[in-house]
Design goal:
The chain is an alpha+beta fold and 234 residues long. The protein has six helices and seven strands. The chain starts with 7 loop residues before the first helix and ends with a helix. Keywords: Signal. Pfam families: JHBP.
C-alpha cells in the first residue's frame, strides 16, 4: 500500500453521504456538503473501532538514531471534526479537512544512536500529544456499480495527505526503564522546541503506520451496509 492510497475508505464514507446522502447537495452549497460530511464521519467513529487504534511494532531510523516502538496506540480521532468538504463532479476530485483537538500517541520504545548532538540508549514508556492538528486530504474518486447488488459505489482512486499544525507537539516520558534520565530530557526538549519538524517526523514515521489499520476498520463498516442503507441512515 502506497502513502497516496492512505485513508481511502475514510474519505469514501465522507464523500458518499455529502454527494449522495439523504439530501443531495448542490456542489456550490458548501454548508450542505459540510453537514453531510460531518454526519458521515460521526457515524464512522461511533460504529467502528477507530479510537483507539493499535499497532504492534514500528521500527526505523533517523540518520544514526535507531528506534523500535511496540504496543502503541493512537487516540483522539473520535473528537476530530470535518472542517472543509469540497467536490468537483466534472474533474472527480475532492478535498476534506479534519480538525483534531488532540491526537495522542502512547508507546513503549527502545532507542539507540545519536539525536542531534546527544547520544541516546534506553527504553521506556512515552507519549506524543499533538494539539489542534488539521489533517488535509485531496484526491480523485471514481463511481462504479457493484456486481453483488447492482448498487452504485464511489471509490477514492488517489489520495494525498498533508497537515497543518495549529497547536503544539509535546513529547512526554512516562516511565524510564533504562537509560540516562538527563539525556532523555534533552531529547524531549529537542523535539518539543522544533514543533514543525517534529510534526513532520510524527506524520511520516508514525501516523502513516496506522493507515492500514484504520482502513481495515472502515472497510469492515462498509461491508455491513449497502449504499441505500447508508443514504437512508440519516
Amino acid at each position: 500500500m502506497t502513502r497516496t492510497q492512505s485513508l481511502r475508505s475514510v474519505m469514501t464514507l465522507i464523500l458518499l453521504h455529502s454527494v449522495l446522502g439523504g439530501q443531495i447537495c448542490d456542489l456550490k452549497d458548501e454548508v450542505c456538503l459540510l453537514r453531510g460530511a460531518k454526519n458521515t464521519f460521526k457515524s464512522l467513529v461511533e460504529t467502528n473501532h477507530v479510537d483507539p487504534l493499535h499497532v504492534d511494532k514500528i521500527t526505523g531510523s533517523i540518520d544514526t538514531f535507531k528506534y523500535e516502538i511496540t504496543n502503541s496506540t493512537l487516540s483522539g480521532l473520535k473528537n476530530c471534526e470535518v472542517l472543509v468538504a469540497k467536490y468537483d463532479l466534472e474533474k472527480k476530485t475532492y478535498e476534506i479537512h479534519l480538525q483534531c483537538p488532540a491526537l495522542i500517541f502512547d508507546y513503549y520504545y527502545e532507542v539507540e544512536g545519536t539525536l542531534g548532538t546527544t547520544s541516546l540508549n534506553g527504553k521506556g514508556l512515552a507519549a506524543i500529544i499533538i494539539d489542534n492538528y488539521i489533517l488535509k486530504f485531496k484526491g480523485i474518486y471514481s463511481k462504479s456499480i457493484s456486481e453483488k447488488d447492482q448498487k452504485p459505489r464511489i471509490t477514492i482512486q488517489n489520495n494525498n495527505l498533508d497537515a497543518t499544525l495549529k497547536g503544539k507537539v509535546a513529547f512526554e516520558s512516562k516511565y524510564l526503564i533504562s537509560g540516562n534520565k538527563d539525556k532523555v530530557e534533552i531529547a524531549i526538549e529537542y523535539f518539543n522546541s522544533r514543533p514543525e519538524e517534529s510534526e513532520k517526523l510524527f506524520r511520516t514515521y508514525i501516523l502513516e503506520k496506522y493507515v492500514p489499520i484504520l482502513e481495515k476498520e472502515v472497510n469492515t463498516y462498509l461491508s455491513t451496509i449497502t449504499l441505500d442503507e447508508l443514504i437512508s441512515s440519516y
